[in-house]
Amino acid sequence: MKNKIEPQVTLVGAGPGDPDLLTIKGAKALAEANVVLYDALANEELLSYAPKKALRIFVGKRKGCHEYTQDEINQLIVDNALTYGNVVRLKGGDPFIFGRGSEEIEFVESFGIPTFVIPGISSSIAVPASQGISLTKRGVSESFWVITGTTSARKLSSDVALAAQSTATVVILMGMSKLDQIVALFQKESKGEMPVAIIQNGTTPQEKVGIGTVDTIQKIVAEKNLSSPAIIVIGEVVGDGKKNVAFYNELKSHHNKVLVYGKE
C-alpha cells in the first residue's frame, strides 16, 4: 500500500543573492523538500541544499521575460503539493517584501493545504548594508521608506513623491526603468545634491555600484551600464557609508566630476 501524500507548502526567503545569507531554517526546509519552485532572484547554489531526487522547477520572472504567469505559478505550487507532498517555494529576498508571497499563500490555503513561511533577509536592507550604508543613523536619518518603483499597473508608485518630501532614507526596488521620473521628483523638492547609490546584483560576485547625487546619477548609470536587478538608495546616509565617505567628500568638492566605483 502506497504512503498517503501529505501536501504542504513552505515559502522560503532566499535572501539578497549571496547563498551564505540564506537562513539556517531555510536550509533545513530545503533539505526536506520533494519539489522546489524557485525564482530568478534566488541563487541557484541554494538548490544544493535540496535532496538530489527533489524536482527543481524554475518559475523565474524578469522584465520582459516571464517563464510563467503568477496565476500559473500559483497553480503549479498546488499541483505539485498534491502530487508530491512537500513543496518549497524559494523566493529572492524576503517573500513578503514585494514578493507576492501573501498571494501565493492565500491561494494554496484555499485548497486546504498547510502552509509555512520562513522569512528571508530582505535585499532592501542587506544590499545597502553590504556597502556600509546604514539606512538609519542618529542625527542623519530617523526612518526609511522601502518602495516599489513599478506598480502592478507598470507605473511609478505615488509613494515616491511623498518620500521625496521627507527626510527619510528612500530605498526603491524595481525602479531602474523609472529612474528619470524618480530623479525629477527629488529635483522638484530641491534635492539635486542628495547622495544616491545604485547597487546592481548586490552581495553577489556580479555586483556593480554607482554613487553620485540626484543630479548626477543618470550619467553615472549610463557610464557604468547599470541595470536591473538593482536597488536605488537615496539619502544623506549614502554619503556617510564607510565605503563611500571619501568618494562623496571628493564629489562635493568637484560637482562637475563624475566618479564611479564598483566591481566589473
From TrEMBL:
Q: Which GO terms describe its biological process?
A: methylation; siroheme biosynthetic process
Question: Which Gene Ontology terms cover its molecular function?
Answer: uroporphyrin-III C-methyltransferase activity
- ATP-binding listed as a keyword: no
Pfam short name (any one): TP_methylase
Q: Could you tell me which pathway this protein works in?
A: Porphyrin-containing compound metabolism; siroheme biosynthesis; precorrin-2 from uroporphyrinogen III: step 1/1
InterPro entries on file: 4pyrrol_Mease (IPR000878), 4pyrrol_Methylase_sf (IPR035996), 4pyrrole_Mease_sub1 (IPR014777), 4pyrrole_Mease_sub2 (IPR014776), CobA/CysG_C (IPR006366), Siro_Cobalamin_biosynth (IPR050161), Uropor_MeTrfase_CS (IPR003043)
| Classification via PROSITE patterns | SUMT_1 (PS00839)
Q: What class of enzyme is it?
A: transferase
Ranges in a coiled coil: none
> Among its keywords, does the record have S-adenosyl-L-methionine?
yes
Question: What EC number(s) would the UniProt record show?
Answer: 2.1.1.107
Record-annotated Tetrapyrrole methylase domain positions? 9-217
Q: Which UniProt keywords apply?
A: Methyltransferase, Porphyrin biosynthesis, S-adenosyl-L-methionine, Transferase
Q: What does the similarity note say?
A: Belongs to the precorrin methyltransferase family.
- Which NCBIfam families does the entry mention? cobA_cysG_Cterm, PRK06136.1
Q: Which PANTHER family match?
A: S-ADENOSYL-L-METHIONINE-DEPENDENT UROPORPHYRINOGEN III METHYLTRANSFERASE, CHLOROPLASTIC (PTHR45790:SF3), SIROHEME SYNTHASE-RELATED (PTHR45790)
- This chain's protein is named uroporphyrinogen-III C-methyltransferase
